[in-house]
Amino acid sequence: MDKISILWVDDEIEILKPHIMFLEQKGYVCDTINNGRDALDMIEKGNYDIVFLDEHMPGLSGLETLTVIKNIAPALPVVMITKSEEEHVMEGAIGSSIADYLIKPVNPHQILLALKKIMDSRAIVSSKTSSDYQQQFRQISMEISGGLDHEQWMDIYKRLVNWELKLEKSDDESMHEILQMQKEEANTVFCKYYQNSYEEWLKGNQPDRPVFSHTVLKEKLFPLLNSNPKKPVFLIVVDNLRFDQWKAIAPLLERFYRVKKEEMYYSILPTTTQYARNSFFAGLMPSEIERKYPQYWLNETDEGGKNNCESELLEMLLKRYGINIRHSYNKILNLDAGRKLSENIANYFNNKLNVIVYNFVDMLSHARTEMEIIRELANDEKAYRSLTLSWLEHSPLYDILRTLASHNVDVVITTDHGSVRVVKPVKVIGDRETSTNLRYKTGRNLNYNAKEVFEVRDPQKIFLPKNNITSSFIFARSGDFLVYPNNYNHHVKYYDSTFQHGGISMEEVMIPFITLQPKA
Predict the structure, then answer these.
(1) What pLDDT, on a 0 to 100 scale, did the predictor assign at position 54?
(2) How far apart are CA 131 and CA 147, in angstroms?
(3) Distance between CA 311 and CA 328 in Å, rounded?
């Protein structure tokens, strides 16, 4: 590894010779200069890794030198060293994006610590994170194979996501691979657990069952509405927002909000907007919506948008529970609609409940499949998270959230389903009326290997509508995707490593339900 090259700028540099010798003994290369102007020339000509810069120098001051350094080499770390503890000096240095700030007199070990923190921190953190995960690996594996309940599975998923976020800052590729293998193992076991429990959960035969799509508003939102009758609640449903994407955007929102609760619920099957979100707003399972409100439900083969009546379903839900409140519903499908809502958000503070459905992440997921440039920008989970964060930071939704943060409101961020990166094709044969989704199929004449899917021969057992008397459903598990034999190789290549939803996986099923409180 190349030695780290230091430029130390101080008008009393001769006094610091013992410090320089100490650093050189530790393997660092250290050039010195006693004024700002010469330092700038050296930075332009040289290739330094870090600069130690005295604040109080004759001629060009440290702060003035720092300003020019940041123009010449914005990414070059600068450690400001000064005798002054005056607040305006510290603020000036910090405002110019210094890497650290030391008060004279400094000793060699302070300098070494600053170097380690700035230059070696990534390697140290990477090594420590890898070591910590190695210690946790065995414990997580034992828990996965130990017969977990639904709450323990949520805890496992959260821990795996947290390790994924920590390890993405590490350069240890072997640990990335081990974590990926452990996630796949966890998903395999979770899918079996979900498949074996699902029907009994929905029948109500198991008292210990998760909060589902059709019960989440009743069990999590309604108590929030009742906790303070005069306080507005903004329910923001970001379509297709996975838990790891929430964790990626959380630091951005924590500038303005405190996280009151970071909860989860389970999505129903299929984990798609047509089924899961309609259930979310109706407080009913799909077959119950079809029976109770046939005017608001369209089946797979029916023409028309399948989620055009969410506002009406929400209205019916509130009426059934005797909740008579002022409320609004907005669905944002494009940038102009988002900007318009942001401009008019002040009009909604007199409502008790305001629902905003924001469709970007779902559109990103589909674009990830269909557009080559998005496939390259979001080629794995890490990039997918990064793209989500970048979108939010420059979106009207972020403007809305910042506006809400300056008012006495509660904000809930959630979704209706997640998505999973698919990597393994599973062959299925169906007729023309078979649904097109890659993670589930429904139709009359499905032909498949029953060991490779979760099959439901009678959809009514899991409260799904039947298009006709012989209709059945099958669901892909973990990272599988369902492909027809005709033009098989083309479709396998086209859809491999894309993000899909509709089946069973931790990423699709375990849904973030986050309650935020403004800091202001």
Answers:
(1) 92
(2) 27
(3) 8
Contact by Cβ (8 Å): 465, 285? no
pLDDT of residue 55: 86
Q: Which two tokens stand for residue 439?
A: 């993670």
Q: Which residue has the tokens 């439900």?
A: 297
Which structure tokens are listed for 313? 């379903």
Kindly report which listed range (55-59, 114-118, 384-388, 415-419) carries the lowest average pLDDT score. Answer: 114-118
Report CA-CA distances (Å) from 519 to 350, 406, 412: 21, 8, 15
Question: Contact, 498 vs 230, CB < 8 A?
Answer: no
Predicted confidence band at 304 (pLDDT cuts at 50, 70, 90)?
confident
Q: What is the 3-state secondary structure (H, E, C) of 493-509?
A: HHHCCCEECCCECHHHH
User: Distance between CA 236 and CA 395 in Å, rounded?
Assistant: 14
Interval 343-376: pLDDT, tens? 999 999 999 999 999 987 655 555 445 556 566 6
Give the position of tokens 């797979």.
300
CA distances from 79 to 69, 257, 271 (A): 12, 31, 51
Question: What are the C-alpha distances in Å from 108 to residues 24, 373, 498, 514?
Answer: 11, 50, 52, 47
Nearest-angstrom CA–CA distance, 82 and 173: 41
Q: What is the 3 state secondary structure string of 169-225?
A: CCCCHHHHHHHHHHHHHHHHHHHHHHHHHHHHHHHCCCCCCCCECCCHHHHHHHHHH
Amino acid (1-letter code) at residue 74: P
**pTM score:** 0.81
The owner of tokens 């959260």 is: 158
Q: Where are the beta strands (DSSP E) in 69-171?
A: 78-82, 100-103
Cα–Cα nearest to 342, from 352, 350, 332: 332
Residue with tokens 């674009």: 367
Q: Which residues pair with 50 in a beta bridge?
A: 6
Strands (E), 346-391: 353-358
Phi-psi region of 442 (alpha: psi -120 to 50; beta: other; left: phi over 0): beta
- The DSSP symbol for 3 reads P
Q: Which helix (H) or strand (E) holds 442?
A: strand 440-443
Please report the pLDDT score of residue 8 as a whole number. 96
Give the number of other CB atoms < 10 A from CB of residue 71: 8
Query: Which tokens belong to 328?
Result: 């609004």
Structure tokens at 179: 């974590």
Q: Are 2 and 26 in contact (CB under 8 A)?
A: no
